[in-house]
């Protein structure tokens, strides 16, 4: 029986459990009819749910655990047989034979390309059947045990409603933990792979070296640098400098216009449009940057007499990224300005200050912490942005402050390192994880500081 | 256009104020002179604050608010196109219900107006304006050693006196006070009332208040508003001891409100 069929069987039996529990509780209700109220604690359907959950959850949980561990058990059983002693000791050839034998045993493949795998097929067949039988039996046993346990506990005064409530809470807790554990897991894998990288390349070379030139195949004497400073600089130059030079003034000014000058009709029209801008897929920005903005900037640079202007220049990627960030800066600034009490604005206007004096001298200083928080979030978003820079920025590590020159970023290099042939034992591939770790830590710190700043600012006006 | 009125500091003629379609003030004509403190009293929602805010055109900041009729400051129509609202508000200052110091230092709060209007030609002169304004507002002794502290760190009563000092600093002719003590405790209220006494004669003062005892204590003339109408206007002592209108009498004796 396949896993899917088993799952449906479990769910079907769960339905049976639900009906049985409900029917039993309905009998309680009938028996209690005419007596004092409150004799049956919960509605029959809660009894049904309680029995069904007790039957299904342990069984399904066991199924998934078994699916995860049984392949290893199968392999162990096969390897324990004396027929496998003549397998090659080389890991690669050995694994190829084993996986082919398994594929034939499972019916994914019909003929063997390797003679040795042919004779292992019956072994695999037996082992697979054996463990699949255990899995099925275990699942059904747990299902019946859970169902019977729950069913026997049903009594008129059994608090099925409270139990189900508790189980619902557990389900919600489980759902929220998944996101947290995923984050922890990603972080752990980054740390693990980075550790491997740093056992091959010195962390000092990585953090303060200026020569970035990783090669997939290392030839002795060849230039093979892992100094990430040019990448860090490129990321900061594009994401935190050029993009912010575009996004901060434009975002802030649009927020000021929307909160202070625009009539409510214009505001109603413009705010959603700005928010749509935030929903444009970054790949669209990417080709806009690569195909339209970058050539225009190069031509402009050539006109200015800049001789080494590149077509994948930093300016194009930075400007388009800045445009992408505008809605973020604008909406965060908008919130902060709107949070400044109106009394403050009235106080200034009543002194005879004009609107723009009021904005410059009272509203913006009062809203500044919130705006700064928004900008930090925007920087964090910009330096982690990948698609625009992959399409518009260059691949050459270049330590330059010339915005017309080509420059690369951390995210671009991660993509480059993980595209094509990979070997998880070579620093070339593992470098991607070290870069990812650096990026993760930076954006994590930026987000943390930004949220703290914004929170403290909110408290100040509550 | 009504006739250009008399020597009064502020005169209004047939003023109506609308919020959208709703008429909040109906045909109010009143003369406020320089030497007296004038109190506006009346039950909640009677339009007294609305009327006060139209005297320095703060209603302009409210979307849908509209003023009809004429309001004169020294005989000049303040809603005429020749009147610059920025200049008007420098001449007619305002103190709000809730103290609203800017999140700046005490010094910068008071210096705010003089700076935007260019009243001081140098640091020394600005210091002088700040000191004299705080002195007049009765706050100098309490804050002279910590002018750099934030204005928002002061107590509620001190904040309100800081706001009065801030209004005084641009040397206005009229000060409008919109329930200036409603957010303060009795002791702080008493300080503000004393201050109003001291300021009388230097500025034309109009105070909106819910508190009839306060109106009786601080004002020489009282206007009673009800449902957007000016019911009665006269000497405070007359209004409180011998009102002409029954509605005034009912309100003052606590029959409603």
TrEMBL record, chain A:
UniProt-listed CDD domains: TM_PBP2
Domain annotation ABC transmembrane type-1: ranges: 233-450
Presence of keyword Membrane: yes
Gene Ontology cellular component list: plasma membrane
InterPro entries for the chain: MetI-like, MetI-like_sf, Phosphate_PstC, PstC_N
Transmembrane segments: 49-79, 128-154, 166-192, 231-252, 273-294, 314-341, 362-383, 430-451
Cellular compartments annotated: Cell inner membrane; Cell membrane
Alphabetical list of SUPFAM superfamilies matching this protein: MetI-like
GO molecular function: phosphate transmembrane transporter activity
Pfam family name, one: DUF3708
Domain of life according to the entry: Bacteria
Topological category with respect to the lipid bilayer: Multi-pass membrane protein
Entry keywords, A to Z: Cell inner membrane, Cell membrane, Membrane, Phosphate transport, Transmembrane, Transmembrane helix, Transport
GO BP: any one term: phosphate ion transport
Predominant cellular place of this UniProt entry's protein: membrane
Family (UniProt): Belongs to the binding-protein-dependent transport system permease family. CysTW subfamily.
Cited function: Part of the binding-protein-dependent transport system for phosphate; probably responsible for the translocation of the substrate across the membrane.
Protein name per UniProt: Phosphate transport system permease protein
Species whose genome carries this gene: Sphingorhabdus profundilacus
């Amino acid at each position: 029986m396949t896993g899917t069929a088993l799952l449906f069987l479990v769910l079907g039996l769960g339905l049976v459990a639900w009906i049985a529990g409900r029917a039993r509780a309905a009998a309680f209700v009938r028996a209690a009819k005419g007596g004092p109220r409150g004799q049956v604690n919960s509605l029959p359907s809660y009894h049904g749910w309680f029995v069904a959950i007790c039957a299904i959850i342990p069984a399904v949980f066991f199924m998934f655990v078994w699916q995860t561990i049984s392949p290893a058990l199968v392999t162990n059983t096969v390897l324990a047989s004396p027929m496998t002693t003549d397998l090659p000791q080389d890991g690669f050839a050995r694994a190829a034979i084993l996986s082919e034998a398994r594929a034939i045993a499972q019916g994914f493949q019909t003929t063997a390309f390797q003679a040795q795998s042919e004779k292992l097929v019956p072994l695999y067949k037996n082992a697979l059947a054996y463990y699949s039988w255990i899995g099925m039996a275990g699942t059904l046993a747990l299902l019946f045990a859970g169902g019977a346990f729950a069913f026997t506990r049903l009594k008129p005064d059994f608090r099925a409603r409270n139990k189900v409530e508790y189980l619902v809470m557990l389900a919600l807790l489980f759902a929220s933990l998944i996101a947290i554990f995923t984050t922890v897991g990603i972080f752990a894998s980054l740390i693990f792979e980075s550790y491997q990288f740093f056992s091959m390349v010195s962390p000092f070379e990585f953090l303060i070296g200026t020569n970035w030139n990783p090669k997939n195949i290392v030839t002795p004497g060849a230039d093979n640098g892992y100094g990430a400073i040019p990448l860090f600089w490129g990321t900061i130059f594009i994401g935190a400098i050029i993009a912010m030079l575009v996004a901060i003034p434009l975002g802030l000014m649009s927020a000021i216009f929307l909160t202070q000058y625009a009539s409510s009709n214009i505001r109603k029209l413009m705010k959603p449009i700005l928010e749509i801008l935030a929903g444009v897929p970054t790949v669209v920005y990417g080709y806009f940057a690569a195909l339209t903005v970058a050539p225009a900037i190069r031509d402009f640079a050539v006109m200015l007499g800049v001789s080494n202007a590149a077509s994948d220049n930093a300016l194009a990627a930075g400007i388009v990224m800045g445009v992408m960030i505008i809605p973020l800066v604008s909406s965060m600034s908008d919130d902060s300005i709107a949070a400044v009490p109106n009394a403050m604005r009235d106080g200034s206007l009543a002194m005879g200050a004009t609107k723009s004096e009021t904005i410059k001298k009272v509203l913006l200083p009062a809203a500044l912490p919130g705006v700064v928080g928004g900008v930090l979030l925007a920087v964090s978003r910009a330096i982690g942005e990948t698609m625009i820079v992959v399409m518009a920025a260059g691949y050459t590590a270049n330590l330059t402050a010339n915005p017309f020159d080509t420059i690369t970023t951390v995210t671009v290099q991660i993509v480059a390192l993980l595209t094509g042939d990979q070997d998880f034992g070579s620093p070339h591939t593992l470098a991607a994880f070290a870069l990812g770790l650096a990026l993760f830590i930076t954006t994590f710190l930026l987000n943390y500081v930004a949220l703290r700043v914004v929170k403290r600012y909110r408290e100040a006006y509550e | 256009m009504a006739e250009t009125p008399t020597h009064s500091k502020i005169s209004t003629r047939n003023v109506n104020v609308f919020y959208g379609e709703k008429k909040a003030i109906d045909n109010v004509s009143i003369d406020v002179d320089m030497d007296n403190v004038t109190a506006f009293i009346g039950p909640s929602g009677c339009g007294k604050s609305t009327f006060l805010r139209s005297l320095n055109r703060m209603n302009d900041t409210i979307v849908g608010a509209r003023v009809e009729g004429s309001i004169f400051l020294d005989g000049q129509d303040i809603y005429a196109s020749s009147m610059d609202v920025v200049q008007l508000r420098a001449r007619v200052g305002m103190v709000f219900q809730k103290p609203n110091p800017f999140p700046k230092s005490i010094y910068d709060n008071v210096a705010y107006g003089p700076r935007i209007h260019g009243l001081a030609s140098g640091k020394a002169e600005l210091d002088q304006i700040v000191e004299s304004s705080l002195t007049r507002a009765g706050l100098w002794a309490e804050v002279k050693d910590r002018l750099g502290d934030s204005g928002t760190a002061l107590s509620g009563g001190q904040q309100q006196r800081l706001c009065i000092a801030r209004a005084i600093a641009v040397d206005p002719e009229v000060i409008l006070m919109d329930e200036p003590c409603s957010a303060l405790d009795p002791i702080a209220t008493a300080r503000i009332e004393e201050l109003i006494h001291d300021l009388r004669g230097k500025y034309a003062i109009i105070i909106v208040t819910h508190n009839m005892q306060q109106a009786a204590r601080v004002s020489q003339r009282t206007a009673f508003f009800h449902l957007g109408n000016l019911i009665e206007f006269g000497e405070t002592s007359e209004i409180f001891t011998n009102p002409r209108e029954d509605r005034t009498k009912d309100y003052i004796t606590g029959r409603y409100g």
